[in-house]
Amino acid sequence: MARTSPDPADLLAVGELLTDEERLIRDTVRKFADEKIRPYVGDWFDRGVFPAKELAPELGELGVLGMHLDGYGCAGSTAVEYGVACMELEAADSGLRSFVSVQGSLAMRSIHAFGSEEQKQRWLPELAAGRAIGCFGLTEPDFGSDPANMRTRARRKGADWVLSGTKMWITNGSISDVAVIWAQTEDGVRGFLVERGTPGFSATDVHGKLSLRASVTSELVMDEVVLPADAVLPGVRGLRGPLSSLGEARYGILWGTVGAARDCYTTALDYAKTRIQFERPIAAFQLTQQKLVEMMLEVEKSYLVAHRIGRLKDAGQCGPAHISFGKLNNVRTAIEVARTARTILGANGITVEYPVLRHANNLESVLTYEGTSEIHTLVLGETITGESAYR
Q1: Which of 132, 184, 194, 242 has the smallest C-beta neighbourhood within 10 Å, fewest atoms?
Q2: Which residues form the Acyl-CoA dehydrogenase/oxidase N-terminal domain (predicted)?
Q3: Residue 278: CATH number of its domain
Q4: 91 with 263: CB under 8 angstroms?
Q5: Distances (CA, A) of 82 to 24, 185, 224, 271
Q6: Can you tell me the mean pLDDT for 219-225?
Q7: For 249-297, how does the pLDDT look when each residue is reduced to its tens digit (9 = 90+)?
Q8: How far apart are CA 158 and CA 290, in angstroms?
Q9: Are residues 156 and 180 in the same domain?
Q10: Which are the catalytic amino acids?
Q11: 61: closest CA among 72, 49, 73?
């Protein structure tokens, strides 16, 4: 059998471990990102905008919104299929993958897992098609890693609920048609569906961001918001609800960051082959080759980690520690790859003409949202020692 030349973007041919359907999804999402996102995202990042309303129906038609859920217009994809889609979305920009993750793994998944049949019928088909946008309100100005102490409260008033509090750093917040808001009640933490335009509910965008600029980030304020009894998600009480949805979103992150890292590595590789210094392409210099090799090694290892966790998830054997392993390893690896790639591009690397510093800036947010490195370290520490070190 004739030997084929290895692919510099996937030297171990990890992609060959994917099924035909998984490769088809990967290639389809990659084509969408290349045509619809990549030519414009540098400008969006520069201007601090994200055309979510225009892109949402296209993402719905692509089939990636809530793709890993069953029924109600959702594709019922496998975990690995969802993972490779996240990888290709984040190869274009973390903000794009964040939009899809929040819509599908947080807002839609919470309704799908814990909502009433009426809530599912009302919202899931609209969200899956991108005709509606959702957000997920858990984090507060003073409580991120410690949601058990959230200050948002919901109290009963006759048959209704009255909701008060503030949520912060909420992706899609100001453009959402429905917000899944988690609040303390007499019966523990409960989830509530708050529709756009509900009196007392407001959303203000966060400006001045240096990261995730091509993404909508908002503060949500609930000022004595009166909600009917059927606004509550009936299927869960306690933090198990929001934390289980966060686990789904973190799973998408551990795949997505492989795409960001790969994009930085291949950008640096292509640049090094054409950038001439001292009458030679800089790819011919030993120090540059070392950087490229180190980046390639880390991208491939992260890809293998994501693939293994995806297979465990599809087999029903993936636990929180596996998700923490993947997010902790793959995000910090991607940041280092992005920073190294920037050094190869030199001054060109700090412009929006190239994606590497945009990826690096975005990954600084990905590092801490939906579970900081410190929290994931403690999850893994407790797993291997049997001792909890949170308090």
Answers
A1: 184
A2: 19-130
A3: 1.20.140.10
A4: yes
A5: 12, 34, 38, 31
A6: 93
A7: 899 999 999 999 999 999 999 999 999 989 999 999 999 999 999 999 9
A8: 68
A9: yes
A10: 370
A11: 73
